[in-house]
Amino acid sequence: SAEYPRQLSEGSQMTENNQSFPGRRKLLLIDCDDRTQQMLTKSIRRLGMEALSADSAAQNLDESILAVIVEIDDLQSQEILNQARNQGLPIIALSRHETLSQIQSAIRVGATAMLNRPLTQSSVYTTLMMASNLREQINALKAENSRQSLQIQARPQIAKAVARLMTDLKIDEHDAFDRIRTLSMELNISIEAICSDIEQIEPSIEIRN
Asked: Given this model, what pLDDT does residue 6 score?
C-alpha cells in the first residue's frame, strides 16, 4: 500500500516555533559632510550606539547595522545605499533644504523618514524609531505579498495533492486539505513541499485509511 505519513492517515497536532533576532547597535552614515557627521556621531554615541562612515563599511554591510542616515544633497555612494535598501535596512534622509523636491528625492532612494535640522539627540532617536517601524511594516508587507504570490503559483499542485488524498484515503476535500495543513504545521514544512511529496508517492491498489 502507499506509505503516507501517519499524520496524513490518522491526524496530527500543531507545534509552534519562535525566532529571535540579534541586536543591532550601529548606524551607517552615507555622504554626510564633516560637520554633520561629527554632530550625528555625538548624538548616536549618547544613545549608546556606534556611528560608522560609508568609507569604513565593508562591501557586505555589517549585520549589526540598525539603519542608514544619508545626506541626499550630494549623494555619491549610490552602490552602498542600494545594498542597504536591498537588505531591507531603514533609510533616513538628511537634507539642508526641506523642500518638496528633496522629499521626493528621499522617497526615490528608499527613505522612510527625514531627519530635520537642527540635529539633536532627541530628533535622531525619534526619527530612527519612525524609520525603523515603517521599514518593518514595509518588509512585512513585501514578505506577505511574496508568500501569497507563491501560494497562487502552487495552487495547481495543492489541488492535485488534495485530489490524490481524496481518492486514496476515501475522504472529502476539507478533510484532505486539513490533514495536509496540520502535517505542515507539525513538521514545520511548507504546504507546497508536503504536496510535492504526496505527488511522488507511487499509486497503489490498496490504500491504508
From this structure: 61
